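Batch manifest, entry 17 of 40.
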Amino acid sequence: HMTMLRSEKVKKENELKEYLNANGGFSNSMIGSESSIFNINVFDESLMAAIDRFSSFFAAPLMLRESMWRGIMAVELEFQEIVNDDDQRIEQLLASKAACVASNFSCGNRKSLTEDVGSEKLYEAAREFRNKFYVASNMFLCIQSGRSLDRLQETTEEFFSGIPSGSMPKQLDPVPIEDHFTADFFTKMLYVKPKGEECKLYMTFVMPSMLNHYKTKPHIFLKDVIGHEGAGSLSSYLREK
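Output type: structure tokens
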């Protein structure tokens, strides 16, 4: 939230968003457990000016102190939107049974970001995180356009070369399956009183790391087979019964 507000080039808050809206586009960001994704979409004739603004948030974001509280409140607003969502509640319950960093409170809110933490310490921690991880060696970039590949390469070099290079991220050794979760995860059934109208059954299977199978993604194939709802599928069989 703080990164995309202002930069050394974009002095006005939300200037990028206003430019994209005025040129048939939009911006979005997704924060996951292992990565953050930032993207913009705009008419091709406005792409260069949009990229000029967009790239500055990674090369030279201001991350001002006065922006931090608005960022915290944005996180709090997102939390309030999902706090009563049963899927989110169950996901967090399952995460709490993990025997690693995945057991942490994953989405955050105002309390988790501010309780027992001074504003100055929080601000410095945010800047330290950005300086450590928002580096070119830790990023992937994709630009889709009708322009030639040579022109897109020139654009990439022109606008994104200012991002600090950093060092290559350390590859971690895979964690043994038996160490993924606490022992009671494999022996207990968890019951959750729903906030909504639906009743659901979750059956969770622990799988080995798919890191070495990233090209073929067998777990996605398996998911699609089990989740298929056409004729002869598991779903159609259960519905008939």
